[in-house]
Amino acid sequence: MMGSTTEAKKIAKRVFGFDSFRPLQKEIIGSVLAGRDTLVVMPTGGGKSLCYQIPALVLEGLTLVVSPLISLMEDQVSQLKELGIPAVCLNSSLSAEEYRQNMGLLSRGEIKLLYTAPETLLQERTAGFLEQLDISCIAIDEAHCISEWGHDFRPEYRQIAALRTRFPKSVWIALTATATEQVRHDICSSLNLIRPEVFVAGFDRPGLFLEVRIKSDPDSQMLDFIRQYPDQSGIIYCATRRRVDETASMLRSRGFLALPYHAGLSDEERRSNQRAFIKDDVQIMVATVAFGMGIDKPDIRFILHRDLPKNIESYYQQIGRAGRDGLDSHCLLLFGYGDIRTIRYFISGKDKKGQKAAELHLKAMINYAESEICRRIPLLSYFGEAFEGDNCRHCDNCSREKKQTEHQDNISLAARKFLSCVIRTGRIFGAGHIIDVLRGSKSQKVLDRGHDQLSTYGIGLEYTKRQWFHLSRQFIRQGLLTQDPQHGSLLPTGKARQVLRGELEVFGQLHEDGMHSDRIKSRPEK
Ligand code: ADP
Ligand code: ZN
């Protein structure tokens, strides 16, 4: 298996068009290629599929992918076919004719990836047929379905383990986004994984200092920023080729060693500029999104976004190029509302479906840029990961928050009352109902649910409804609660648990400007 991860990297680029691996992908692929059973826990969108698709292409023979949903597997198969990878599925939705055809392709060794549902696999005619093929790898997607502790238990999954003895030569890889210890343990034992390598990917890069500033005068803002890092390597990303060229020459005219990189340059120019950057002959690479492939420069100390990226995915990839050596690095995004218009203009040229997706991506990006809470919360939640803890201490909002607390009220008690009430009422209500309970309302909804029996009923009479709403918005902004965008229901976060345990104090404003508690008499609601 010598050099197989180099091979993997080439395939990632050549077949899938990916410039680099996401966190842990390389290690996971290496583990599978080394023939070790592997368990992968990675947030949704983390790039799990690649972890078996690449080995499938590197290894001789066939990779069998077990996936619970037929629609999902058909999507994957058609995507792979578009990339020129021979893949098929066997499932109950195929006609007898298609089924026979696919079996023909498989027995002739023309297929690299076979997707199948557990119930299909467990039929003797399928299992018996597959036994005669050369199956090098078996991938169990959505492996948490095997655990009764998971959120999606599927009994058929339990029986997959029996296949272990029928395919003794295959290496197994199980993948899931569910990370609890119990589920992880269940997967390993139910599938009889042999001394598995376990990989748990998190998206947080604690070494990156995240900052957003409103774009006012980009040239002087950029100059101010890079002057903080004399002689240290950094990348400046711009939205267009023209802006890359302008920015690079502006920097050079100010005495900085900067070179452009974009798809409009000749291959030779691009290669030589990139080499100059890697070898520290220039300090700054000014680039479009085209820059990044194979950039394994460990000591990039800053990433400056002159323009708003189109989505968090690419933003995350770009800032991820900083600080590969594990040392602190600074990521600054200049956020201008004009950029939103420009991106929307591009979006309007897409088809309907593309527009919808691109608009959602843009919204998430704007949400990140406008966030008043720790930047890590919107960033990581985009990848399905919660940022637990009170303060990352490594973003603009967290460092700012600390300074402000001197002029603010301690609202910890109000926070504890509110959070307890959210928990007691079952984490399914919005602020309005929580406030009704706190203020002892006799509304039908409160009575019907028996919420007048709760210990938190009527414990919040010291504030008016309006004040409570004001407080609840601060609790959300400060990341104690997240709000379901569809139903408005509030969910306490890890930070909320710290507040409830008394480990963390909350500061904010008790009153909206111009509201004075002594002028407002609180009465129970009718
Ligand atoms: P998961 O199964 O973990 O939810 P997927 O395998 O569907 O995630 O990957 C999520 C997205 O990330 C896909 O659009 C995929 O093409 C993309 N992706 C995966 N690996 C990489 C990579 N190394 N570089 C860029 N994009 C990637
Ligand atoms: Zn933070």
From TrEMBL:
<keyword id="KW-0238">DNA-binding</keyword>
<keyword id="KW-0547">Nucleotide-binding</keyword>
<dbReference type="GO" id="GO:0005524">
    <property type="term" value="F:ATP binding"/>
</dbReference>
<dbReference type="Pfam" id="PF00270">
    <property type="entry name" value="DEAD"/>
</dbReference>
<dbReference type="InterPro" id="IPR027417">
    <property type="entry name" value="P-loop_NTPase"/>
</dbReference>
<dbReference type="InterPro" id="IPR036388">
    <property type="entry name" value="WH-like_DNA-bd_sf"/>
</dbReference>
<dbReference type="GO" id="GO:0043138">
    <property type="term" value="F:3'-5' DNA helicase activity"/>
</dbReference>
<dbReference type="Pfam" id="PF00271">
    <property type="entry name" value="Helicase_C"/>
</dbReference>
<dbReference type="InterPro" id="IPR004589">
    <property type="entry name" value="DNA_helicase_ATP-dep_RecQ"/>
</dbReference>
<keyword id="KW-0227">DNA damage</keyword>
<dbReference type="Pfam" id="PF16124">
    <property type="entry name" value="RecQ_Zn_bind"/>
</dbReference>
<dbReference type="GO" id="GO:0006310">
    <property type="term" value="P:DNA recombination"/>
</dbReference>
<dbReference type="GO" id="GO:0009432">
    <property type="term" value="P:SOS response"/>
</dbReference>
<dbReference type="GO" id="GO:0005694">
    <property type="term" value="C:chromosome"/>
</dbReference>
<dbReference type="GO" id="GO:0016787">
    <property type="term" value="F:hydrolase activity"/>
</dbReference>
<protein>
    <recommendedName>
        <fullName>DNA helicase RecQ</fullName>
        <ecNumber>5.6.2.4</ecNumber>
    </recommendedName>
</protein>
<dbReference type="GO" id="GO:0006281">
    <property type="term" value="P:DNA repair"/>
</dbReference>
<comment type="similarity">
    <text>Belongs to the helicase family. RecQ subfamily.</text>
</comment>
<keyword id="KW-0234">DNA repair</keyword>
<dbReference type="GO" id="GO:0009378">
    <property type="term" value="F:four-way junction helicase activity"/>
</dbReference>
<dbReference type="InterPro" id="IPR011545">
    <property type="entry name" value="DEAD/DEAH_box_helicase_dom"/>
</dbReference>
<keyword id="KW-0067">ATP-binding</keyword>
<dbReference type="InterPro" id="IPR036390">
    <property type="entry name" value="WH_DNA-bd_sf"/>
</dbReference>
<dbReference type="InterPro" id="IPR032284">
    <property type="entry name" value="RecQ_Zn-bd"/>
</dbReference>
<dbReference type="InterPro" id="IPR044876">
    <property type="entry name" value="HRDC_dom_sf"/>
</dbReference>
<keyword id="KW-0233">DNA recombination</keyword>
<dbReference type="InterPro" id="IPR018982">
    <property type="entry name" value="RQC_domain"/>
</dbReference>
<dbReference type="GO" id="GO:0046872">
    <property type="term" value="F:metal ion binding"/>
</dbReference>
<dbReference type="InterPro" id="IPR001650">
    <property type="entry name" value="Helicase_C-like"/>
</dbReference>
<dbReference type="InterPro" id="IPR002121">
    <property type="entry name" value="HRDC_dom"/>
</dbReference>
<dbReference type="InterPro" id="IPR006293">
    <property type="entry name" value="DNA_helicase_ATP-dep_RecQ_bac"/>
</dbReference>
<keyword id="KW-0862">Zinc</keyword>
<keyword id="KW-0347">Helicase</keyword>
<dbReference type="GO" id="GO:0005737">
    <property type="term" value="C:cytoplasm"/>
</dbReference>
<dbReference type="Pfam" id="PF00570">
    <property type="entry name" value="HRDC"/>
</dbReference>
<feature type="domain" description="Helicase C-terminal">
    <location>
        <begin position="218"/>
        <end position="366"/>
    </location>
</feature>
<dbReference type="InterPro" id="IPR014001">
    <property type="entry name" value="Helicase_ATP-bd"/>
</dbReference>
<dbReference type="InterPro" id="IPR010997">
    <property type="entry name" value="HRDC-like_sf"/>
</dbReference>
<keyword id="KW-0378">Hydrolase</keyword>
<keyword id="KW-0479">Metal-binding</keyword>
<dbReference type="GO" id="GO:0006260">
    <property type="term" value="P:DNA replication"/>
</dbReference>
<feature type="domain" description="Helicase ATP-binding">
    <location>
        <begin position="29"/>
        <end position="197"/>
    </location>
</feature>
